[in-house]
């Protein structure tokens, strides 16, 4: 008996937050919820998505069409292409394929609730194609191998499963072309994804929603293409074969081609489509904020809260700039594993909108500073992230427990406050599977011109210092302060640095608390002087984590 082969692709369409409702039309394969409409054609399985009930007439709709699936050898040549349909290993059209539909039901994905239904068909060679469609009915986030995705009420995704696929060369499966025996090495799956734009255009620079490749589909829609796949349901995400995914032109169509290595059970792939804002929703521009003092410029991106530090008005143009980026905030159990409840983790700041206060003069530890704040709401429970940015206007020193650090004019620090976070099992907070939260892990990337490397001999006291390149560094203190108590040593093994793809993420761990927690690393930043003036050393206080948690006890 042939082994089960399952190919799963996950697509997401973020459509905005509208009114909740749900309906399905069994006759034509239509589902709607939260003001979003998805229609699947009974012949071909083409999927059309829109915010308009009349999907076909909406010029801003996005269509996803399965173009072909084929097995290839080590050189990428198709195999098993000849013979009767029942023995073929390549299918270059789904145009005449008939699909059947299930009823709409309530479901969830990664603990995020959704309306769902599926449609399925049997391909000529006996393989079965099943597509599950979801429209999320609540906000949430989930993570796949460090690529974090935020979904909102109205976000749509679908999984594609292919069962009972037989590879050329498997036991009992013989394929040949003339006198040549063919051996299957890959499965190539091709999909056409089209919006209003003429052809998908790869995005670069600011405005991207992800660290993966993103392509503009027109009218605010885009598709995010990951290069990670999961084989045989083993939980590990690994790179796709070199050169994939890739784009190909076929007549007037632009096609996305995904290549998967030979597998024994399954392969899972996860691109994403974002339809942008509703045409009826007024556009609210997200503003960036910048300020300067003592020759140092600090810019915070209104989308994501990323902080850039440099020696010019646009720090991104400084080749020696330092960037500080919030990565994730996750509640953990006693054994260090994640709390599964979606409301107790926030693993994507990339699309978070921040609001700013005007810059003002102030004091910090009796030192004059220039400051401003920015904040954003993290989840539907009302947790809020607030960050205060300071640039010192005079020399002085700051003491944290037994760690004293000198500061100079131009030094910068920022304090981060998290409000209204509710730990699982604390007070009246109940989480799925009766989970109990014990820690809060906060991750951030701090990057200079070079990759962070731990210095073997640091002159910064008991803290750990990491070289960021060009004489810049980050000093990671082991001290944390809860409420108004004294500074204490952080949990064993923290801070820690974890490599995740091309990023190195600094993690701190905070014990469960009911008030405030402070953490203070330091970034030492060297810049080239303006107009050829000598280099001067600028120390940057990057990140007091000042986490204020309001826990309601019942």
UniProtKB/TrEMBL annotation:
Keywords: Signal. It comes from Mytilus edulis. Residues 1-24 form the signal peptide. It comes from the Eukaryota. This is Uncharacterized protein.
């Amino acid at each position: 008996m042939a082994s089960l082969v399952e190919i799963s692709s996950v697509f997401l369409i973020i459509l905005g937050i509208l009114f909740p409702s749900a309906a399905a039309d069994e006759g034509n394969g239509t589902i709607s919820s939260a003001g979003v409409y998805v229609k699947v054609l009974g012949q071909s399985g083409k999927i059309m998505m829109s915010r308009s009930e009349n999907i076909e007439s909406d010029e801003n709709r996005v269509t996803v069409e399965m173009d072909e699936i084929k097995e290839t050898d080590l050189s990428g040549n198709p195999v098993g292409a000849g013979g009767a349909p029942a023995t073929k290993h390549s299918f270059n059209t789904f145009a005449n394929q008939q699909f059947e539909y299930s009823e709409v039901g309530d479901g969830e994905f990664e603990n995020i609730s959704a309306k769902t239904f599926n449609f399925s068909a049997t391909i000529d060679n006996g393989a079965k194609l099943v597509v599950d469609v979801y429209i999320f009915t609540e906000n949430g986030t989930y993570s796949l191998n460090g690529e974090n995705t935020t979904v909102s009420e109205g976000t749509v995704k679908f999984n594609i499963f292919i069962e009972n696929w037989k590879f050329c060369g498997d036991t009992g499966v013989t394929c040949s072309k003339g006198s040549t025996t063919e051996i299957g090495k890959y499965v190539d799956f091709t999909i056409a994804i089209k919006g209003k734009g003429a052809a998908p255009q790869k995005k670069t620079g600011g405005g991207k929603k992800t660290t993966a490749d993103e392509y503009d589909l027109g009218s605010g829609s885009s598709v995010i293409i990951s290069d990670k796949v999961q084989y045989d349901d083993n939980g590990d995400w690994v790179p796709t074969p070199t050169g994939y995914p890739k784009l190909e032109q076929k007549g007037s169509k632009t096609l996305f081609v995904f290549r998967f290595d030979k597998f024994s059970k399954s392969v899972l792939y996860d691109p994403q489509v974002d339809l942008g804002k509703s045409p009826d929703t007024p556009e609210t521009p997200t503003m960036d904020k910048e300020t300067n003092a003592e020759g140092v410029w600090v810019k915070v991106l209104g989308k994501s809260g990323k902080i850039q530090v440099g020696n010019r008005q646009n720090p991104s143009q400084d080749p020696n700039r330092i960037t500080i980026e919030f990565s994730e905030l996750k509640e953990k159990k006693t054994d260090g594993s994640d709390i599964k409840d979606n409301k107790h983790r926030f693993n994507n700041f990339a699309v978070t909108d921040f609001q700013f206060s005007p810059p003002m003069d102030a004091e910090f530890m009796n030192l004059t500073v220039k400051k401003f704040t920015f904040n954003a709401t993290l989840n539907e429970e009302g947790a809020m992230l607030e960050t205060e940015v300071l640039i010192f206007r005079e020399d002085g020193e700051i003491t944290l427990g037994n760690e004293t650090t000198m500061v100079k004019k131009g030094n910068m620090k920022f304090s981060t406050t998290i409000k209204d976070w509710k730990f699982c099992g604390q007070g009246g907070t109940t989480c799925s599977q009766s989970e109990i939260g014990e820690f809060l892990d906060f991750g951030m990337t701090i990057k200079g011109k070079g990759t962070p490397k731990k210095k073997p001999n640091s002159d910064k006291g008991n803290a750990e210092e990491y070289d960021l390149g060009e004489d810049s560094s980050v000093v990671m203190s082991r001290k944390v302060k809860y409420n108004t108590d004294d500074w204490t040593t952080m949990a064993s093994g923290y801070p820690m640095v974890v490599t995740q793809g091309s990023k190195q993420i600094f993690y701190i761990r905070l014990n469960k608390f009911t008030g405030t927690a402070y953490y203070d690393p330091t970034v030492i930043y060297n810049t080239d002087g303006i107009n050829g003036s000598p280099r001067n050393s600028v120390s940057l206080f990057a990140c007091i984590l000042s986490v204020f948690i309001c826990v309601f006890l019942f």
